[in-house]
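Most newcomers find our protein records easier to grasp once they have seen one. The structure tokens are whole numbers drawn from a learned vocabulary of backbone shapes. The record below serves as our worked example for the rest of this section.
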Amino acid sequence: MTFSPQSKIWVYQSNRKFTETEQSEIQQKLDEFTGQWKAHGHQLKAKAEIRYGFFIILVVDQDQASATGCSVDASVRVIKEIEDQYHVDLFNRFNMAYKINEEVHVVPKEDFETLISIKKINLDTIVFNNLVQDLEEFNTKWEVPLHQSWHKNIFAEFLNS
């Protein structure tokens, strides 16, 4: 399937990496969900994928049919089921993800601050901007150096010390 650059996107970040078995099971659950995901009776053109073993990404091409409140609620229910079944936290926005040498790490905000303070994370470290809104932003602004992300403003005091 080809998706419009304006397709709506949601990124859910796990607090731990899923095992290969979990990834396979979760992908199957997501495929089943997106295959029947509807808004006001209209099938949504949607897909879901797991990236780096940490991120669940949902995409809806709104050119065909837009996700509505009820359909978004349905997706959140599926994500909460995954969270409960696999004992992970997918809604904690205080977990920070970064990448060093192609390896993704997720740590609590306080640990991220410490890593900046001890210079393990710097302005060139790749961070994940899970606030992206559409596919175009996802493709260009999801994985960016810290100096190009909102992280720079939030963690400025630690970067400047």
Remarks:
- The chain has a mean pLDDT of 94.
- The longest strand covers residues 45-51.
